[in-house]
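Archive maintenance. Older records in this collection stored only the sequence; we are now back-filling the structure field for every entry so that each record is complete. The fields below show one back-filled record exactly as it appears after the update. Entries are processed alphabetically, and Glucose-6-phosphate 1-dehydrogenase is next in the queue.

ARCHIVE ENTRY
Title: Glucose-6-phosphate 1-dehydrogenase
Organism field: Clostridium rhizosphaerae
Length field: 496
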Amino acid sequence: MNFNTDLSCILVIFGGTGDLTHRKLLPAIYNLKHSGKLPDNFALVSIGRKDISNDEYREQAYKSIKNSSRFKIIDETLWEDIAKRIYYKKFEFHDSLGYKELNSFLDKLDNSYNTKGNRLFYLAVAPEYFSLINDELYKQGMVKNEASWQRLIIEKPFGRDLSSARKLNKKITEVFGEANTYRIDHYLGKEMIQSLMVLRFANSIFEPLWNSKYIDNIQISSSETVGVENRGGYYENSGALKDMVQNHMLQLLTLTAMEAPVDLSSSSIRDEKVKILRSLEDITPEKIKQDIIRGQYGESMIDNKRILGYRQEDKVSLNSNTETFVALKLHVENYRWAGVPFYIRTGKRMKKKSTEIIIQFKSIPKFLYSKEFDNLNSNLLVIGVQPREGIYLKFNTKKPGTENFIIPVEMDFCQTCQFESNTPEAYERLLFEVMNGDNTLFTSWDEVEYSWKFVDNISSQWGSEKLSLPNYESGSFGPKEADELLLRDNRHWWNL
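Back-filled structure field:
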């Protein structure tokens, strides 16, 4: 869908020397240029607090692109065209004079690159700066949205809870408006997340089966092998529930469970996602005890190397009660999903890095083959989000030979295997969609609000309850209580 006929703009990145900018944003800009999607009238201004020159910043940008671009060989001609459009400005985010000078500088760049006053402000900074930068942009008259457009991209976390999210949203939308506020969730930019809607609504073999009549349960898992690394201070105030469930995991759930939208407009898709969030069952104190599991990774030895436990990480309390793992059993209370459990889990320092959605279909009646063979494998539809992107269907067939053996086989479409580096990366796609004025792949305020309501209900009931932590070893699949959550229902996690 094309929304803008002219994508001309200046991209202003606050946090231009940070890890996100160098690993994701700068390579995404180069990738867009390489793919012919970067507008001809374009410039990039990075804002940071380090004292470096334009040339030094361009050298750093080149190294970052070389290390992280999906195109392994840098086209020097393309780079030279990008490099001359990259500028670096040093000032503190609370310095009003810096914004005033930035405004004048952007006006000059408009004349040089014919960017027509269009601005894309990217807040790749710590959450405590979101409101400050928003206010300063307003004070200096840098957001008008009249003859030109100004848009804001804001990274997670969008608030610390529902109350702070509402305050932040009020401030930002008073300046930019809802239509020009892009709350980024990079999971929504991943190829297979977008393919999920196509899989469901463009294939008659799946949609008729996508309901409680045929589906036994749905498992949504996202695991990381790394710990909190240098984010201990942030994680102490967040934990897995707020860091992952409030955004990524609930987004995956809504896309898996939503009804077909009336059309492919962003408003129609978002409406259906919100309906799922509103349909989530109430989290009662009894459900907290029975159906929500918390965990924290401890130290262990992996490949003869000592791995620190969470409490040994930098800026983490020695008595920390923060969860690095959470598993939930949920129900979507509507006609389509009545009685179908959704099992969600996410954690750090797990056995493997993986994000998957697994649809387990119901067992066939005890008749014919299921009567003769006690342990027929369940039919599974697996949507791999990362690192292996793809879809495979697991079903039963007869093993070739004279004896009557039934074995599980797979029909496998590996997207990353087939298309390799030709698949656009999440930030590349998301930046292009913002330039294009399409907010389909971004989180609406309604989604943020309802997801925070859901998560706040859980965290408030947890309160200051002390747990016996840590309760799982680094390099495992999480605490045994998470396995027991499914065993209680005569099910198990699919660790594929």
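Update note: The first strand starts at residue 9 and ends at 14. The radius of gyration is 24 Å.
Entry marked complete.
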